[in-house]
Amino acid sequence: MLKIAITGNIGAGKSEVEKLLSSEFPVYDTDKMAHEILGNIDRKKLGDEVFKNPEKRKKLEEFVHPKIKEMILDIFEQNFEVVFISVPLLYETDFHKLFDKVLFIASDEDIRLARIMKRNNFTEEEALVRIKSQLPQEEKIAAADYVIYNNASIEDLEKQVSIFVGKLHCFIHLKDT
Fold first, then answer.
1. Which of 27, 103, 149, 152 is the S-S candidate for 22 at Cβ 3.0 to 4.6 Å?
2. What is the pLDDT of residues 162-173, one digit of tens each?
């Protein structure tokens, strides 16, 4: 099984890439796993609280991250040829060690800021707090195996994902021969 992590900083477009890949491959999202773990909690209220208080954020992560890791390992028990798992905090959690390859979705900070403000109805300050809570994008790009830049249209993103999938199929074919 080829285990590929999808990651990228907040607002980069991971969800769009997940949708595009899911037509051909199994794709899982650790954000959805975290929501399952936390239940019907008010995410906006929780986020406001933990992003203001690093100690509370640390406690939340200490509770949620081991459970997510268990869920990822359960997925790896299934019989997939290729599986994608979206992990926004891949490097921050050291989960990158669980995967064979990393696909990083990159986007300029001003574009990510605008997306976050629109999508989450955040103020610029609220969005910036979340952006700054993650490792710098440049560090993650350097550590990734493949990078897709999502600074343009959805059609451009689709084209880049298609190129990536083509390369992946070639890799799988070569591996099988």
1. 27
2. 999 999 988 877
- Which residues fall within 8 angstroms of residue 1, CB to CB, at 6 or more apart? 76, 79, 80, 81, 82, 83
Q: Measuring CA to CA, which residue among 161, 136, 115, 139 is closest to residue 18?
A: 161
Neighbours of 159 (CB within 10 A): 13
If we measure between CA atoms, which residue out of 163, 167, 147 comes closest to residue 8? 147
Q: Are 19 and 99 in contact (CB under 8 A)?
A: no
Please tell me the distance from the alpha carbon of residue 123 to that of residue 107, in angstroms, as a whole number.
19
Beta carbons within 10 angstroms of residue 56's beta carbon: 13
Interatomic CA distance for residues 128 and 123, integer angstroms: 9
Can you point out the beta strands (E) in 78-156? Answer: 82-86, 101-106, 146-149
pLDDT, residue 117, reads 95
Top CATH class of 2-176 equals alpha beta
Which pTM value belongs to this model? 0.89
Where are the chain's structural domains? 2-176
Question: Residue 32: is its pLDDT beyond 80?
Answer: yes
**Side chain identity at residue 67, one-letter code:** K
